[in-house]
Amino acid sequence: MTxxxxxxxxxxxxxxxxxxxxxxTPLAVHREAVGDDRAPEAIVERMARTIERLAGGSADPVTVxxxxxxxxxxxxxxxxxxxxxxxxxxPFGELLGRRLGARYRLGVYNDVNAITWxxxxxxxxxxxxxxxxxxVGTGIGGGLIAGGQLIEGASxxxxxxxxxxxRWDDDAAPCMCGGRGCVEAYVGGRYLIARIRRELAxxxxxxxxxxxxxxxxxxxxxxHVDDAALDxxxxxxxxxxxxxxxxxxxxxxxxxxxxxxxLILGGxxxxxxxxxxxxxxxxxxxxAPAASLEPLTVAVAELGDEAxxxxxxxxxxxxxxIIE
Length: 324
Hints:
Layout: E1 3-9, E2 13-20, E3 28-33, H1 40-55, E4 62-68, E5 71-72, E6 79-82, E7 87-90, H2 92-100, E8 104-110, H3 111-122, E9 131-136, E10 140-146, E11 149-150, H4 184-187, H5 189-203, H6 209-212, H7 222-230, H8 234-258, E12 262-266, H9 268-272, H10 274-287, H11 290-293, E13 297-300, H12 306-317
Parallel strand pairs: 1-4, 4-8, 9-12, 12-13
Antiparallel strand pairs: 1-2, 2-3, 5-6, 6-7, 9-10, 10-11
Helix pairs in contact: 1-2, 3-12, 7-8, 8-10
């Protein structure tokens, strides 16, 4: 039986799984914290040992797909920038390939691309040839499938929907990418939580949100705001109305260009804020072109943490962007 291994390298955890043949059910799973030592060489060594354990005594060549929370520069797995790992201009694919040796065939992918492909293989995008997947977590990432093919782009950064602009006036919010007015700077988790707590601390608005968090502003999460909005809290509803519209504009513009059959919404923020997600879907119906909406169905991501492992393993097994 041929073995393929999928890796998901994020800012907090390194997760890995081995798959046999065409199965999307893992034979074995490994998870560990990334830890404080984020030097590329240290992470490569730990990852290589994990891969070797999962590969076991397989006599056949083993394919390895790695999804990285990073902006990639090329098909050789060069990390242009990864704020989570604090990497910039790191030849990650070259380092890992050299450490593993000729027995392993390696592909390195953006983590959201791997997640999107995982949903296409065994999740909410199964059976769809044209897909836009948008994940709202700490930041906002996107994955694109067109004609049944993963779209990585000329410089490997297709799908960066989080950095499309939804505001461009003088008050547009600054983003970690160096730009202003990105949808991530409004709806991405790190910015959203900071804004919620800042507004509650500075204005002490009449709202039930703080009470829902046990009386501590520092304990408030987007989930508390979502619960309050569902109960008709005026401040929470006003904030969600603003943010749902901005997210809908970004989604609508992307769909106008891509004409996707399937829109998948996922990520930690949207998983915990069903009211915000529903409001954004309603606004999307108002802002997206009618022709783009006609073939569209919207679904919630199904595979959770396993999506990136399944997707990375399958991309490598199928020979997508293998490093030669």
